[in-house]
């Protein structure tokens, strides 16, 4: 059975709203983010991809690797090898406008025959030294292209107010360069590692979830069932919806997505408001149902309400919030 039997219902699920306060954003984070569900439907909403126009601009002369402090690599088949490998300076090859505050940046790998070297799930670290800054800006990103694609990696980058890395990346034009290091391992995935996984994402927290989703559904041997709860402020803020709907249409018995908006349009058929226990209980398998896993990725306020925050990148911290209240254990939850 795909989660609860209520997933088969075509009508909306009415839920009480559980409010919670999001934490104040840091200079490099987004504005407060709220997700939830007052009503959720299982139908598919038609959605048009918001733009794919290449940015035209005069490109400055690319900076050399020495200026960026990047290391050279050999002729291996993988650009990123981890371990003691230093930062690699990658040239920006293309920029595409995605929506009102998000761009796709395509960076060329040092050798067009190389793959990135990332595993699933893993990320890369970007580094930028501001001209007048004392310390470099370092931020993690999860590429959106397949790990076996040769010659490039693509980042989906949302610009945040007072976000030094995202503002810098949105100002870049080809063939400027940026330093990268990786792979940064997150959660080691293997086909059929779990019978059913539930992904709870907010905003750009969808990128590691999408990495898992596309890996699972491109592998015919992997039969994992996937439920996604994905929240944003407005419909225009939803990322990768076209790709997610394509997978949902192809695998309707194994993948369901539930979209939540803080400010939905009048005709919005999905959820509105805050995440509630009832929504999670309906979408996710019962904590006693067997080999399951719940993944969480989003802004601090969402972590606090749903699962509790991580103590550090290496320490998942204690489980709290909605998931603990519903009876899930720390071992059943992974916080990206």
UniProtKB/TrEMBL annotation:
GO molecular function, one term: cytochrome-b5 reductase activity, acting on NADH
EC number per UniProt: 1.6.2.2
Superkingdom, natural source: Eukaryota
Family: Belongs to the flavoprotein pyridine nucleotide cytochrome reductase family.
Membrane topology label: Single-pass membrane protein
Catalytic activity: 2 Fe(III)-[cytochrome b5] + NADH = 2 Fe(II)-[cytochrome b5] + NAD(+) + H(+)
Primary location group: mitochondrion
GO biological process: ergosterol biosynthetic process
Family annotation (Gene3D superfamilies): Nucleotide-binding domain of ferredoxin-NADP reductase (FNR) module (3.40.50.80), Translation factors (2.40.30.10)
Protein's name according to its UniProt entry: NADH-cytochrome b5 reductase
Cofactor(s) annotated in UniProt: FAD
Source species: Capronia coronata CBS 617.96
Record: residues binding FAD: 139-141, 156, 158, 165-166, 207
Coiled coil: none
Enzyme class, spelled out: oxidoreductase
Domain FAD-binding FR-type, chain residue ranges per copy: 85-190
InterPro entries in alphabetical order: CBR-like, Cbr1-like_FAD-bd_dom, FAD-bd_FR_type, Flavoprot_Pyr_Nucl_cyt_Rdtase, FNR_nucleotide-bd, OxRdtase_FAD/NAD-bd, Riboflavin_synthase-like_b-brl
Pfam families linked: FAD_binding_6 (PF00970), NAD_binding_1 (PF00175)
Keywords noted in UniProt: FAD, Flavoprotein, Membrane, Mitochondrion, Mitochondrion outer membrane, NAD, Oxidoreductase, Transmembrane, Transmembrane helix
Localization per record: Mitochondrion outer membrane
Function: May mediate the reduction of outer membrane cytochrome b5.
GO CC aspect terms: mitochondrial outer membrane
Keyword Flavoprotein: yes
């Amino acid at each position: 059975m795909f989660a609860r039997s209520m997933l088969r219902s075509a009508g909306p699920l009415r839920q009480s709203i559980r409010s919670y306060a999001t934490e104040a954003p840091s200079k490099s984070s987004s504005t407060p983010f709220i997700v939830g569900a007052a009503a959720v439907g299982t139908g598919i909403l038609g959605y048009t991809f918001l733009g794919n126009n290449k940015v035209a601009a005069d490109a400055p002369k690319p900076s050399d690797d020495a200026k960026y402090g990047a290391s050279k690599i050999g002729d291996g088949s993988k650009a990123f090898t981890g371990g003691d490998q230093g930062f690699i300076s990658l040239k920006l090859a293309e920029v595409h406008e995605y929506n009102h505050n998000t761009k796709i940046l395509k960076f060329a790998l040092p050798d067009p025959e190389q793959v990135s070297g990332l595993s699933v799930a893993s990320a890369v670290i970007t580094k930028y030294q501001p001209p007048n800054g004392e310390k470099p800006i370092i931020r993690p990103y999860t590429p959106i292209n397949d790990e076996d694609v040769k010659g490039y990696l693509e980042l989906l980058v949302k610009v945040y107010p007072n976000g030094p890395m995202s503002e810098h990346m949105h100002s870049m034009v080809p063939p400027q360069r940026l330093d990268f290091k990786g792979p940064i391992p997150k959660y080691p995935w293997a086909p059929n590692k779990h019978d059913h996984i539930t992904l709870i994402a907010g905003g750009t927290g969808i990128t590691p979830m999408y990495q898992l989703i596309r890996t699972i559904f491109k592998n015919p041997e992997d039969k994992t069932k996937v439920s996604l709860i994905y929240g944003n402020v407005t419909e225009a803020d939803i990322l990768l919806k076209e790709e997610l709907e394509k997978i949902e249409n192809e695998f309707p018995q194994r993948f369901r997505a539930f979209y939540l908006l803080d400010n939905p349009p009048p005709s919005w058929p999905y959820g509105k408001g805050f995440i509630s226990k009832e929504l999670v209980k309906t979408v996710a398998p019962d904590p006693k149902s067997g080999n399951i896993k719940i993944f969480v990725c989003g802004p601090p306020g969402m972590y606090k309400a749903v699962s509790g925050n991580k103590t550090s990148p290496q320490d998942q911290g204690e489980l709290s919030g909605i998931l603990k209240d519903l009876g899930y254990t720390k071992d059943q939850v992974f916080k990206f």
